[in-house]
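S1.2 Input.
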Amino acid sequence: MSPGPTAKQPALFISHGEPAFTMDAEDATNRWLRRFGPSLRATNPRAVLCISAHHVASRLCVGAADPQPTLHDHASTSLSSFTYPAPGSRTMARRVIEQLLRAGLDATLDDKRGLDHGAWMPLSIMFPEHDLPVVPLSLHAAGDPELHLAIGRAIAPLRDDGVLIVGSGGVTHHLAATEKAVPAFDRQALPEPARRFDAWVTELVTRAAPYARSRGLAQFRRHELSRIVLPSDEHFLPLLVVAGAASVAKNPDNLGELVHTGAQNGLSMSAYLFTR
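S1.3 Output.
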């Protein structure tokens, strides 16, 4: 872990996009991540706890491999040799498990799995030096929104100990519908259902007090467009973990900030930062 004093770390949600696009230096999200990374480094994080949409387990799973293997769970052959050998931290992984157990949430340690593309894509762009320890935390296969808010609340105290919490998923993830609905020449625009759903999420994150924000996000399936823009839950659940990690501060002014927006291949690329 890095030496020196550290401030309370942010909780960040990133819409990570598709590997072939996000890893392209000309991609708008890639450019934003490169610019945004140094501002996160300036807070002197000691480690990163990453919750990826592509890590789902029947029991909460905390990764302790060191270094973390790079998993190529994607279809982009041009990236098949890419590696991001971030160090792990068994000590931090055990601390994460302690926090989860303290909250009554069952969890296990995994020494082997490594980082899937939802984790290494944004982290490798923000922190290319791969010197920050990374601990991956799975989603729970039950998919319960309230459970994932509780996971966030359980790990929230780690932010005071220098742990940057990063959730990586997508506000929308309608890949099949996007291929049909968005012309190839207009992939940087959001289809109307995605635009409306994205606006609803952003309103909750940036304007609602913590309790109302958590309740609203947990009921995302009640939104009339959710089944269109999110055929499955896993890309949205990391946002609930991040929102849970930001909900323990009861100050009504504890609002999230929209730090990136736009579209990639017709998908929302919104990202939200919580600093309190």
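S1.4 Remarks. The chain is about 35% helix and 20% strand.
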